[in-house]
Structures are given as C-alpha cells and as structure tokens.
Amino acid sequence: MDRVELQIGDLHWLDPASEEEDLCLHGSFYVKIGEEVVSDGTDPTWTISASVLFLFRTLENGHTPEKPVSENLIPCCGFSMYKQEESEDCLVIECPNGINWTVEKKKNSFLLITENQISEEVSFRKWRDSILRLAEEIEEIYRISKSKRILEEEKEGYDTFWVEWNRRKQAATSIG
Description:
alpha+beta; single chain
C-alpha cells in the first residue's frame, strides 16, 4: 500500500521569450504506481498546471473510464480554458495525447490502476499530500514569474481555472 510517486521537474513556459502570454506551465512528470513506471519523467513538454488541477479533481470524484475528470490525467497540451455554464469547473481543451490511469475512490483510500492493469491502493492522506506538494511547486513558479498579459477572450477561462484550483486546494487541506 502507498507505493506511489509523483514528481514534476523542468518547469518552464513553452517559449521563455513570451512568458507573459503562456498561461500553462509545462515540464516533466514522473509517475510510479506500485512497481510500474507510468511516466519516466524524461519528456519535458507535459502541461503540468492542468495535470495537477485534474489530480485535484480525483480527490472528490476519482477518475474512471465511466466518469473521467479529464481525457488524460497528464495532458500533452492544454490549448484553451473556458468557464462552463453548467459547472463551476474549468473546461480545459486538451489534445488526445497524454498519460492516463484509473483512480477509484474508496472510503479512506484510492485504488490506482495503470493501463497495464497494475494496481496499488494509496491512502487518502498520501494521495492528497502528493497532489498538494505538486501544487505548491507550481504556485511558486507562477509567483516568481512575470505577470501574465491575458487576452480578453482568455481571461474568463484563466480566472475560472484558478478559482477551481483554489477551491479544490482549500477543500483538500480542510479534510483529513
């Protein structure tokens, strides 16, 4: 139980020259579930900010083929963010490429199942703390980065992203 590792690295904006316009943080993502390395952390192009938002969602809903929180838990691309009429959650438009696994929510734990059917039970606290640690790393990069110049048509989606992020982070820290 609790054999799961989540690590992010090489955090960057796609084009450092246009840091003010890039709304999504990118980087590498190492994921190990049980004995299986799901992502080896060598590809530095994953959309890390969207990934951690999606992982936050698993704390409340899990992530299963029947009820996914996103197309992939670690998306290659997060093209756009939109406010949804019927939900408080941000709609992140992603490409079909990404890294995925199942997160089944149990009473006090989660069952993580890789695409190769390797499974590992992880306590609520371990899963939550792993996600919160990643969130802190991401927030620090946004804090020290240049202020964003957000196009008017992107502002509502970007604001919705951070409202959902903060709501889910606050909910995560208030339980257990």
